[in-house]
């Protein structure tokens, strides 16, 4: 399965930042992006595309 890493802005715009074939590797990459990029956006990991199952959201991760 392919996991895609997206940056979603506060206005709803989505930009693909990368992908991985392993869920844990994709989440680690997403955490790296979330800690190194600044602005009002969320970093998300989806399985098989932007409209599919969300497996990571940086907005929820920072609130833990």
How would you characterize the overall build of this protein?
This protein is of the alpha+beta class and 64 residues long. 30% of the residues lie in helices and 39% in strands. The chain has 2 helices and 4 strands, in the order ββαββα. The chain has a 4-stranded antiparallel β-sheet with strand order 2-1-3-4. The chain is globular, with a radius of gyration of 11 Å.
Question: Given the C-alpha coordinates, what overall shape results?
Answer: globular
Task: Give the percentage of residues in beta strands.
Answer: 35-45%
Largest sheet: 4 strands, antiparallel
Could you list the spans in which at least 5 consecutive residues all have pLDDT below 50? Answer: none
Q: Compute the gyration radius: what is it?
A: 11 Å
Tally the helices. 2
What's the pLDDT, averaged over the residues? 85
Helix and strand content put the structural class at alpha+beta
Order of helices and strands: EEHEEH
Q: State the strand order across the main sheet.
A: 2-1-3-4
Q: Estimate the helix proportion, in percent.
A: 25-40%
Determine the N-to-C terminus distance: 27 Å
**How many β strands by DSSP?**
4
């Amino acid at each position: 399965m392919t996991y895609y890493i997206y940056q979603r802005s506060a206005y709803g715009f989505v930009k693909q930042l990368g992908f991985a074939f392993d869920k844990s590797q994709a989440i680690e990459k997403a955490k790296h992006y979330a800690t190194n990029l600044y602005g009002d956006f969320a970093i998300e990991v989806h399985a098989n595309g932007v409209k599919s199952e969300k497996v990571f959201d940086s907005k929820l991760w920072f609130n833990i």
